[in-house]
Design goal:
- This protein is of the alpha+beta class.
- It has one domain.
- 38% of the residues lie in helices and 18% in strands.
- The strands form 2 sheets. Strands 2-3-1-6-7 form a 5-stranded mixed sheet. The chain has a two-stranded antiparallel sheet with strand order 4-5.
- The longest helix has 21 residues.
- It starts with 10 loop residues before the first helix and ends with a helix.
- The chain binds iron/sulfur cluster (2 copies).
């Protein structure tokens, strides 16, 4: 009998199909939310400060936006270095931007692949923090419905199961939305007590420059002035 394309498989069934190729751990920046950061540091038996310092970095995305709203900031208050770098990379600087400040797992070049991968992936393509891995890892490839399958040709699990995680993903997206609301209300350092000190800034998916926590805080705090 032909299997239903959206048949839900158990975790065991899924793990039998998954090739452990580790491709899903090599391609993406994994967002960490504050409660996940606490759980992972506890599992690693290190302080949250050490976890965020050693294993995480800032990942800031900005999108041009003219309408006022949460996390929307005028570019005139951006640090000069960032303003200049946006101009250099894309030619123009918009009046204001939606700023998406995230903490992500660090990716380092590792000997066994020669590529940048999540630092928790071991040489056998197993996750060193599997039981407490962040939600995006559990949900990969997120809302995997018909029509976007071609985006994940490297994932045998997805090709064979047509995995549909739209329900679970929508719960996660609500959590992310609430995180951004908190950052908007309490500021980034009000949500993260000891955030990573450095990371990268992107304009949508285009890399712009390195960014420090100090520079991020200027971008986010100047709206108050
Ligand atoms: S935390 Fe684990 S599952 Fe997630 S990307 Fe890293 S190695 Fe892969
Ligand atoms: S890309 Fe797909 S098949 Fe490969 S490890 Fe990830 S889930 Fe498994």
């Amino acid at each position: 009998m032909k299997k239903s394309p959206n048949k839900q498989l158990s975790n065991k069934q899924e793990s039998e199909i998954c090739l452990n190729c580790g491709e899903c751990c090599k391609r993406y920046f994994i967002t960490v939310l504050p409660d996940e950061s606490k759980k992972i540091s506890k599992k690693l038996k290190i302080s949250e400060k050490t976890f965020l310092e050693k294993h995480c970095e800032l990942h800031i995305k900005i999108y041009p936006k003219s309408v006022k709203g949460i996390l929307t900031f005028p570019s005139t208050f951006f640090p000069q270095k960032i303003f200049d770098q946006i101009k250099k990379e894309v030619g123009i600087v918009n009046d204001s931007y939606f700023v998406v400040p995230q903490v992500v797992l660090k990716r380092d070049i590792v000997e066994f692949t020669g590529k940048k991968v999540c630092t928790f992936l071991n040489e056998n393509n197993f996750c060193k923090i599997y039981s407490v891995r962040p939600e995006p890892c559990k949900l990969f490839p997120f809302i995997a419905v018909e029509g976007i399958r071609e985006q994940y040709p490297f994932c045998v699990l997805f090709q064979k199961t047509h995995k549909n995680l739209s329900k679970k993903s929508s719960v996660y997206f609500k959590k992310v939305k609430s995180y951004f609301k908190k950052v908007n209300d309490k500021k980034f350092c009000g949500v993260w007590k000891n955030p990573p000190k450095f990371g990268q800034l992107y304009l949508a998916d285009k890399y712009i420059c390195e960014i420090s926590l100090e520079e991020l805080n200027l971008m986010l705090m100047d709206q108050k002035e």
